[in-house]
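Quick one: structure tokens for this chain, please?
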Amino acid sequence: MSKFGKKKKEVPAVNTAALPDIVFMLLFFFMVSTTMRETSLLIKKPKLPSATEVKKLEHKSLVSTIYVGKAVNPSEGTGDKIQLNDKISTVNDIVNFIYSERDKHDADEQKAMVTSIKADMKTNVGTISDIKDELQSINALKISYSSSSGDVANNFK
């Protein structure tokens, strides 16, 4: 027998001293990088039509969004409703909405502004046409139609 016995090597414990620092760094990162929704939807979340050719908008700060669909609150009535910012509006309010959005930016940015229409698949074409006519009357000709990417043929099932 030997005078010295073999000692078992134990795995050292994981050092958790830096764990709170890592957790707070991640928390801070997500708090800074997350954007909150600016408007709350008063219409049912639109089921966007799908498209085969989609392009992402570059400068989201220069986008004015018009939501079109059925109202969440049944007291608003039936038919297509238009939401501008945080209220249900009419087609006649679109001109003032676009002018107020333009006033938020300087002259160089106003030329690059885009109006995005997020309309439900089952929205009446007449409503979209009325919106386009109002936008045309104030020379807001850059219009984007929001869609989901996917096969166009699946929309008609």
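The chain is about 25% helix and 15% strand.
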